[in-house]
DUF8082 domain-containing protein
Amino acid sequence: MTAPQWPEGLTDATPLPYNVWRVMTHVDGARDVAEVARLASLTVPDVQERLRAAADWVKRATQHHQQVSDDMADAVTACLTPVVGPMAAVMVDEALDDLGDATTLNNLLSHVARQLSPERVQQFARNLRARGLA
């Protein structure tokens, strides 16, 4: 088996669930997956799942700090539409106008969420998670 590596962009300061960090602390680029599994007291499939989870967390964290593209704004609108109806497009456009050209996905989502009730925020978050945006 090959030695697993930390995903690009993962640092010691990256917030990860404990069960993922439990594996990542043993990943050093030299130990193979079986050795990491032994050290973490897990099975090899469990370690492989945690490694995939770490990569997913890094991908989402990176995505949240990127500038919002037109496609990303459209995806946010699509997630918001079932929550507020056709006003979703207006809300996203106004948020982008308020935040300026260099807004990040994280800023856009926060701005939109502040305009929603707690129940609608939960529905919006579920829709974002289903699309891999949260």
About this structure: The chain has two domains: 18-65, 70-131. Residues 18-65 form one domain.
